[in-house]
């Protein structure tokens, strides 16, 4: 397996954003769907994804840079001669030479020559003489094989690093993406095309009751794993602002301008909705700010449909209207009651 930095063509000091940019470019160019008939595209694509699985994760990248995992993300053994974890004396992290182990094992029952006779049992960690096996000494010698002491069926304390690697090896890394949808798409339940950072493009069916900012999980659509199923795609839904409607939960809000005569005398007026225009009746003497509710003309919910709330906004003419001005002067001179009541007088 090649060095993941070489695979993505970036230096070891590359910023996370540069690594992500390089990955996206390579993944898109080498995606099998973009290279029909190229038998090597799948292998290149997998290698690119495996490299990003390490370098795209801060923890894994740090482990790789420190030599704790290899290019496949597997833990490097850091104990005996021939391994990666040597100290300056040429031996493992504990600093013991191989011949030292015989003396230590002898002290645990069996003599120097009896070191080869020492064995771990499956019955609570006792040796052949029935004495307790000193797990703490072994942990200090072997460095816990990664830090943990998860006992296997043979009584051997394995490393936590090996366990976590095994647990994560069967599943790829999750991929995050956003999709912008219109209110019309939400209302009609249309499918939206989502371009994932893995290079895939998938059709997303919006669930009923979806809200702005909701994250939808697409199983198996994330970064692939070398040994098991891929991770998931986490797609965040973003509503595109509408020129007419405001969204509050599943309800929509619309401001409807009215002329003065429509507000005073009433009128039938066509009103836009997400599914086409409908005609509403504005009652006579409708005050500014009065709200009319249109049932079921909002966004879909898990159990029904929201409403459309229409707020009436009386619009006065900008230019002078002599007849209207004369009528208003007549009203003022007649001493009509104030709509504000006694509290404002």
From TrEMBL:
Residues 162-171 have a biased composition (Low complexity). Pfam families: DnaJ, DnaJ_C. Residues 3-68 form the J domain. GO terms for cellular component: cytoplasm. Residues 152-171 are annotated as: Disordered. GO terms for biological process: protein refolding. Transmembrane segments: none annotated. Keywords: Chaperone. GO terms for molecular function: unfolded protein binding. This is DnaJ-class molecular chaperone with C-terminal Zn finger domain. It comes from Faunimonas pinastri. The lineage of its organism: Bacteria, Pseudomonadati, Pseudomonadota, Alphaproteobacteria, Hyphomicrobiales.
């Amino acid at each position: 397996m090649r060095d993941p930095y070489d695979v993505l063509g970036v230096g070891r000091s590359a910023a996370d954003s540069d690594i992500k940019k390089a990955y996206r470019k390579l993944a898109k160019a080498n995606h099998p769907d973009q290279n029909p008939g190229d038998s090597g595209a799948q292998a290149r694509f997998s290698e690119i994804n495996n490299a990003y699985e390490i370098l795209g994760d801060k923890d894994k990248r740090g482990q790789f840079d420190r030599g704790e995992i290899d290019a496949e993300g597997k833990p490097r053994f850091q104990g005996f001669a021939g391994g990666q974890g040597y100290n300056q004396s040429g031996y493992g992290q504990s600093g013991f030479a191989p011949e030292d182990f015989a003396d230590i094992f002898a002290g645990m029952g069996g003599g120097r020559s009896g070191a080869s006779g020492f064995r771990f049992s499956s019955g609570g960690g006792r040796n052949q003489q029935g004495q307790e096996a000193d797990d703490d000494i072994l942990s200090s010698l072997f460095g816990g094989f990664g830090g943990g002491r998860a006992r296997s069926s043979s009584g051997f304390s394995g490393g936590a690093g090996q366990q976590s690697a095994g647990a994560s090896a069967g599943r790829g890394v999750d991929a995050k993406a956003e999709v912008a949808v219109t209110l019309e798409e939400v209302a009609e339940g249309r499918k939206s095309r989502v371009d994932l950072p893995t290079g895939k493009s998938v059709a997303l069916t919006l669930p009923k009751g979806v809200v702005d900012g909701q994250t939808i999980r697409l199983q198996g659509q994330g970064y692939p794993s070398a040994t098991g199923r891929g991770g998931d795609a986490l797609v965040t839904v973003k509503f595109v602002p509408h020129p007419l409607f405001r969204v509050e939960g599943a309800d929509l809000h619309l401001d409807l301008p009215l002329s003065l005569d429509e507000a005073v005398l009433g009128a039938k007026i066509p009103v836009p909705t997400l599914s086409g225009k409908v005609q509403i009746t504005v009652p006579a003497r409708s005050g500014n700010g009065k709200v009319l509710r249109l049932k079921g003309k909002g966004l879909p919910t898990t159990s029904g449909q929201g409403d459309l709330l229409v707020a009436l906004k009386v619009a006065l003419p900008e230019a002078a209207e002599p007849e209207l001005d004369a009528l208003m002067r007549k009203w003022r001179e007649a001493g009509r009651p104030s709509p504000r009541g006694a509290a404002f007088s």
